Amino acid sequence: MRPSEAPIVRAVVLLVAIFGSGTVGYRLLEEASWWDSFFMTVITVTTVGYEEEVPLSRGGEVFTSILLLSSLGLLLFLVTELSRSVVEGELRQFLGRVRRSRMIERMSKHEIVCGYGRMGRAVVEELQRAGREVVIVERSGERVRRLQEEGYAVVSGDATSEATLRSANITKARGLVSCLNDDAHNVYVVLTARSLNPDIFIVGRATEEDAEQRILNAGADRVVNPYRLGGTRLAHLVVKPAIVSFFDASLEGTDLQLDQTSVGSSSPLVTQTLGQSDVRKKWGLDVVAVQREATVHPSPQPDFRVEAGDVLVVFGRRDQISRFEQECGESVA
Question: What is the three-class DSSP state of 123?
Fold first, then answer.
């Protein structure tokens, strides 16, 4: 029970006790029927002024006076507490919405997850594990209330709506994941998000194979089919279990992990070869691959020359990766 509810509960218990004692009192004092005794208690406590159901003796008049005086204050207190509870509840909800809205407005380089079903929940958990700020867009009122109680940044509304995505501060967001259950809705989300923020990194969910290309055409950078991905993973677990275990460990927050860093224009790595920069000696990291625009160069040789905008996929400890990102670039989605 919440502390604010305790006075109301006590008042209700006392009110029930007054009705019960009033009914029993009239029954004993005036020998009235149970219904007449209850009715006399009701018109006395509520002060409606109806004519008495049974003639009152002197004792009955004294009892009525005591019942009236004791119940009147209690009724006023109960009405006041109920009104205060309603007003405070609405005010608390309003202030909560304002606080969450301002918190989202102050966010920058955050991630937006559209849809909080089973897949959306998994996405949010992984993003939080990676230390990312997340805004959830969800239209189910029950889920929104639960997420708000748990302290998540939530926008209630239709993710295909431009106004809803603006409420999630999409113009300052770094990435968006659209994992709604309907492929057509995911297409609309991607289209709207791309029009509002041309630079945002978008990942879309596709349940049908022919929807993958439509979501890409709408502006998604990547499309994931969970059924195909799940089937591929099951096959890899059978054929290459050691490799799957290695990648799982590197992606699930262990000390050793794979990560990626975008090389900025002011990075000391720019125009140097990997051999000259000696990433392994200076930062203790292995450069596993380099992505330049849409091309991925796996296992780059020491004479590979780094350019601004390259994305280096590195393997090492978290503290080494963090220091490398601070000195040579910034983490990318």
Answer: helix
Instruction: Give residue-wise pLDDT tens across range 121-159.
Output: 999 998 988 788 999 999 998 999 899 888 899 999 999
Residue 263 bridge partners (DSSP) = 329
Cα distance between residue 80 and residue 114, in whole Å = 42
Q: Are residues 189 and 304 both part of a single domain?
A: no
Does one domain contain both 172 and 130?
A: yes
| Residue entry with tokens 């009892």 | 63
Give the model confidence (pLDDT) of 63-84 as tens digits.
878 877 777 777 777 777 667 6
Q: Domain containing 57 — which CATH number?
A: 1.10.287.70
321, 313 contact by CB (below 8 A): no
Q: At residue 333, does pLDDT exceed 50?
A: no
In order, the DSSP letters of 133-147 are -EEEEE--HHHHHHH
Q: Which of 68, 102, 136 is the last residue in one of the domains?
A: 102
Angle (CA) 5-6-12 rounded to 5° is 90
20 plus 91 within the same structural domain:
yes
Most distant pair of Cα atoms in the chain: their distance: 111
Give ∠ CA 115-118-119 in degrees, rounded to 5: 65
Q: Look up the pTM and report it.
A: 0.58
Predicted pLDDT at 183: 93
Instruction: State the average pLDDT over residues 298-318.
Output: 88
Alpha helices per DSSP H over the chain? 6-30, 34-45, 58-105, 118-129, 141-149, 162-167, 183-196, 209-218, 226-239, 241-251, 274-277, 279-283, 318-328
Boundaries of domain holding 162: 107-230
**Count of other CB atoms within 10 angstroms of residue 28:** 12
C-alpha torsion 141→143→147→149, nearest 10 = 70
